[in-house]
UniProtKB/TrEMBL annotation:
Record field: transmembrane: none
Species: Undibacterium flavidum
Listed InterPro entries: Lipid/polyisoprenoid-bd_YceI (IPR007372), TTHA0802/YceI-like_sf (IPR036761)
Name the record gives this protein: YceI family protein
Pfam families in alphabetical order: YceI
Gene3D superfamilies assigned: Lipid/polyisoprenoid-binding, YceI-like
Highest classification ranks of the organism: Bacteria, Pseudomonadati, Pseudomonadota, Betaproteobacteria, Burkholderiales
SMART domains for this protein: YceI
All residue ranges annotated as the Lipid/polyisoprenoid-binding YceI-like domain in the record: 37-197
Length: 198
């Protein structure tokens, strides 16, 4: 038999459920502001590889890449990043070499179409700087890397900028006669700027 007591209990239960749902919604809403998968503006973003050929600096641009950044402004250590680069989109100052560097001795793009970076940890250094660790995969080889990342505000947008120095021979980029570092230096710096829209 339904009674006033049952009605009161039912009403209290309903209020408790509503209260918990509102709290959960508020937590989710605040989390979506502080930690969000950011929308990357490819037109304003860039990835370059800078190296020396016979002691002359060369800057190569990768025209196609995809970046995914889940940035938590309140707790940067919870942030993550992933970048995939289409190696066949490389654009050298001397265009006649663009196809050459895709061959087996260099990127071997037919077998390894993408280079990728996946973060494993981020640590705040204060003043819009992060210490980023992750795994860099090029030509089928994965190496743990670490580099500083600068976060800047551009209007309502954010930009994530950094330089990642690597050794090309660690990734077998330049095999055979191209292991000669007097022709092409072993040191390469990956320069990147990823701009995100609000």
């Amino acid at each position: 038999m339904f009674s006033i007591a049952n009605l009161n209990a039912s009403t209290k239960l309903g209020k408790d459920i509503s209260k918990h749902l509102l709290i959960a919604a508020a937590v989710c809403a605040s989390g979506s502001i502080l930690a969000a998968n950011l929308n990357v503006d490819n037109g304003k973003s860039s990835v370059h590889a800078v190296f020396k050929q016979m002691e002359v600096p060369v800057q190569a641009k990768f025209k196609k890449f995809q970046a995914t950044i889940d940035y938590n402004a309140a707790k940067p250590e919870l942030s993550t990043a992933k970048v995939d680069i289409d190696v066949s989109s490389i654009d050298l100052p001397a265009p006649e070499y663009n196809q050459e560097v895709l061959k087996k001795e260099w990127f071997n793009a037919a077998q390894f179409a993408k280079a990728s970076f996946v973060s494993t940890s981020m640590k705040s250094l204060g003043a819009g700087k992060l210490d980023v660790s992750g795994n860099l995969s090029i030509k089928g080889k994965t190496i743990a890397v670490r580099f500083p990342l600068q976060i800047k505000t551009e209007g309502k947008a954010l930009s994530f900028e950094g330089n990642l120095p690597i050794k090309r021979l660690q990734f077998n980029i330049g095999e055979g006669e191209w292991k000669d570092t007097s022709m092409v230096a072993d040191e390469v710096v990956i320069q990147f700027k990823v701009v995100t829209n609000p």
